[in-house]
Amino acid sequence: MHNRPLNTFEELDGHGRSAGWQIDERPGTRLACVVILVAVPFVAVAVRLHRLQIGIGEAAVANLSPPVESVEPVPSRDGRILGADGRVLAEDVRRFRVLSHYRWLEEPPDPDWLRRRALSRLSRRERRDSAKVAAAEAAVLAERDEQWSLLSRVADVSPALLAERRKRTTERVERIVRSVERRRRERESTPGGQSDVQTAPWWERIVRAVTTPPRRPSVDPVVVTEELDYHVVVDDVPLETAAAVESQADRFPGLRVEVTTQRTHPLAGTAAHVVGSRRPARDEEVAQRKREFPSGDPLAYATGDRIGRTGVERAFDRHVRGMPGREQVTRNRHGEVLATRILRRPRVGNDVVLTLDLDLQERA
């Protein structure tokens, strides 16, 4: 009604103007109110977005992919078996081997892994510079090459042999990935439950057609456990090599040392029928011990642990058996070790001293 010369519903003063306040008389005020009402929500959204991206962006990403903690056994050493004169008939000898994370030995390197490693070295501002990102990727590749070159010198293994072992590991893991991808394609190409749908009553088929979402193919890349795990690159290395790798973690970022034990018999076949043997425990044996000890196996046997089979090794197994420790390992979502913590230290087994005269045994 305001566009008419005279509004019959308004009260006019003596000069012919409206007696009440009219917003139309001040269009600037009305425009300012509209701008404020529109701008305030946008400002609030912008502030929140800035806080998410700049303030707590890294924390939010960390919460989306938190580290994974697992408890792993720490190998122990079984007790020795000695003769009457103190000579050793059977003992455990420590063995050291060097393992590498798959992404560090993969050839050619995974592009996503390489970019992640490069971006982790740059600030948020530097990540926008493609030249700096490329330089960081080149630095990661140089660090990887230097690691293998240094390991070749420390472990006294030729670079060609290391390259061959890396190649075999890469080919084995790639075969596993291709096998998993093939099975996934076969599963997606096979219409699940098609025969059941065809034999179902017509009303059930209608309900399924209306309520069942379409089957979409998977687009996420296949990542198998082997791609996130460590693989042996040098086996049975001396203690000096293991100490060098462990003490220089910054120069060997993709490597770690694993300690194992091997049962040896220094006197070869002397009194072998008495000493006996230790062999890896089988799944059914471990399951049987769990049934015998529902509250927990006092010897903490696991599949693959050596157990006495014959002779003294079997008769004194509970005394010779060493108690393995437990270690808590923290890894990121890419399988790389972030931290370790000992939960229970390993306990060495007890020695068994026999009354056998080893000189007489050797003559016999």
Sheet with most strands: 5 strands, mixed
Q: Any idea what the shape is? A: elongated
CA-atom Rg in angstroms: 36 Å
Order of helices and strands: HHEEEHHHHHHEHEHEHEHHEEEH
- Count of extended strands: 10
How large a portion of the residues is in β-strands, by DSSP E?
Answer: 15-25%
Mean pLDDT: 82
- Secondary structure: helix percent: 40-55%
Overall SS class: alpha+beta
**Can you tell me the residue ranges where pLDDT is under 50 for at least 5 consecutive residues?**
none
Number of helices: 14
What's the end-to-end separation, in Å? 128 Å
What is the strand and helix layout of this fold?
Layout: H1 27-55, H2 57-64, E1 68-74, E2 81-82, E3 88-101, H3 102-105, H4 111-119, H5 130-154, H6 159-189, H7 194-199, H8 202-211, E4 230-237, H9 239-247, E5 255-264, H10 272-275, E6 277-280, H11 283-292, E7 306-310, H12 311-315, H13 317-320, E8 325-331, E9 337-344, E10 352-353, H14 358-363
Parallel strand pairs: 2-10
Antiparallel strand pairs: 1-8, 2-3, 3-4, 3-5, 6-7, 8-9
Helix pairs in contact: 4-5
Explained architecture:
Strands 2, 3, 4, 5 and 10 form a 5-stranded mixed sheet that branches. The protein has a 3-stranded antiparallel sheet with strand order 1-8-9, with no helix packed on it. Strands 6-7 form a two-stranded antiparallel ribbon. The termini are far apart. It has helices at 27-55, 57-64, 102-105, 111-119, 130-154, 159-189, 194-199, 202-211, 239-247, 272-275, 283-292, 311-315, 317-320, 358-363, and strands at 68-74, 81-82, 88-101, 230-237, 255-264, 277-280, 306-310, 325-331, 337-344, 352-353. It is α+β, with helices and mostly antiparallel strands and 364 residues long. The protein is 44% helix and 18% strand. Helix 4 (111-119) packs across helix 5. It is elongated.
